[in-house]
Amino acid sequence: MQTKLVMVLRDDLPAGLAVNAAAVLALSLGDELVGWLGADGKDADGNLHPGLNTHPVPILTASGGELRELHDAAPDEVRVVGFTEVARKAREYGEYLRTLEATPAAEIDYVGLVVFGPKAPVTKLTKRLALMR
C-alpha cells in the first residue's frame, strides 16, 4: 500500500509557533513511520550522519475551521494527530491531560494536524489546501 503524510498548520500562526507545532506533530507520529528513514551516510571525512526521512512531507495551511473539518472528516484508515491550543498552552504534560479532559470536543481549537494513511484518502482530504509559504 502506498502511503502519504501531510502536515497542515493553522494559517495565522507566527513562524515560531508554526515550527514548534510542526516539530511536535512530527515527533508524535514518529513511532508509526517504521521504515521511513534512509540509511546512515558518511561524509568525505568519514563522519557518520544518521539516516533521514526519505519521503516528502508537504506542509500545508488551513484556517482553524478547516482544520476542525479535516480532523472530523478523516476516514478510519487515515491516522490524524492533532496539536491543539490546549496542548500548546500547557506547561507540562499532566496539565495538558487535565485540561483536555475538561474540554468538550467542540471547543478544541487545532493548531495543526498531521495526516497519514493510504495515499488516495489523504490526498482527497488535503488537495484543496495551499502550501505553506
What's the β-strand tally? 7
Parts with pLDDT < 50 across at least 5 consecutive residues = none
Main pleated-sheet profile: 5 strands, mixed
- CATH top-level class: Alpha Beta
Give me the side-by-side strand order of the main sheet: 5-6-1-4-7
* Percentage of residues in strands: 15-25%
Q: What structural category do the secondary elements indicate?
A: alpha+beta
Spatial gap, N to C terminus: 30 Å
Number of helices: 5
Output the CATH topology.
Bit1
CATH H-level superfamily:
Bit1
The helix-strand sequence is EHEEEHEHHEHE
CATH architectural grouping: 3-Layer(aba) Sandwich
Query: What is the gyration radius calculated from CA atoms?
Result: 16 Å
Count up the domains: 1
> Which shape, going by the Cα principal axes?
globular
What is the average per-residue confidence, as pLDDT, rounded to a whole number? 94
Tell me the helix content: 25-40%
Commentary on this structure:
The protein has helices at residues 15-29, 64-73, 85-89, 93-101, 119-126, and strands spanning 3-10, 41-42, 48-49, 59-62, 79-84, 110-118, 130-131. It is an alpha+beta fold and 133 residues long. The protein has a single domain, classed as Bit1.
